[in-house]
Design goal:
Blueprint: H1 3-18, H2 27-30, E1 34-35, E2 38-39, E3 49-50, E4 60-63, E5 84-87, H3 96-106, E6 111-118, E7 121-134, E8 139-143, H4 159-185, E9 201-205, E10 220-224, H5 225-232, E11 236-238, E12 244-246, H6 248-252, H7 257-263, H8 283-295
Parallel strand pairs: 4-6
Antiparallel strand pairs: 1-2, 3-4, 5-8, 6-7, 7-8, 9-10, 11-12
Length: 296
Amino acid sequence: MGISDSRELRGTAMAWLDERTDPRVDFGWLSTFTYDGSRIPLMDRQRGIRKPAGMDAALAIRTTFTPPNQLPPYNDEIGADGLQRYKYRGTDPDHPENVALRRAMEQRLPLIWFVGVASGLYEPIYPVYVIGEEQAELQFALAVDEGQRFITPGTPMDDTTRRYVERITRARLHQRVFRMQVLLAYTDRCAVCRLKHPTLLDAAHIIGDAEEGEPVVPNGMSMCKIHHAAFDQNFLGVSPDLTVAINRDLMEEVDGPMLKHGLQEMHGIRLHVPTSRAQRPDPERLAARYETFLAG
């Protein structure tokens, strides 16, 4: 399969992913993709870097799910330049999978990144580009946004630019994965009102990005958009014992049904939390955030 065919296949695969009804995908469903009459699974069950037969460059990469409080098998992380890194397969730069990823870099081909959000479930991030290789660190540098493709990895940049690049990386990758993991933990329900419509739900940070809050499930709660906004503005608080509190001034206001039923009647209820203790809100983070709510 030539490079031109490879580009067309990638575009077709990404368009196919755009049409999915469930934002989370698994190996079985990804194995049903067809192109030009042939079935071409988008994920390899055994390998992290997917290169279908007949192609010389990688089509997709994968990061497996890491349960709470466990270390990931590969330490993919954001570099000092704000760009995301993806670790080699093993330590040999000439391993076929690493070569396939290098070919994608040389040919400037878009990739699909399947990031594990639960056991066997993935969030597809695309298009992603390999824009640099750091052999001493056994890793590649990735662009997760079109604008990042024009950055040379590792080059000096001012703090404002670096923070901007990192903010894009977190928004396109880390925060999307964080949202999906939180919604899965809360079975796609608002922790406050039990609303069960994923498109109306957010992952609310207990400790926010500005305070260096980590994008991990114990630092998040699934909330509908009205309760997320109320939480961010300190109209709504959650105590360490998982009790919802509404701002005193708001409790005394008189307005329409949303204020009465959507906020005031939530005062004093107990938060709906995951069955897994490891995924429940961290009490220490809640205590720190609740102090902010009380002070507000």
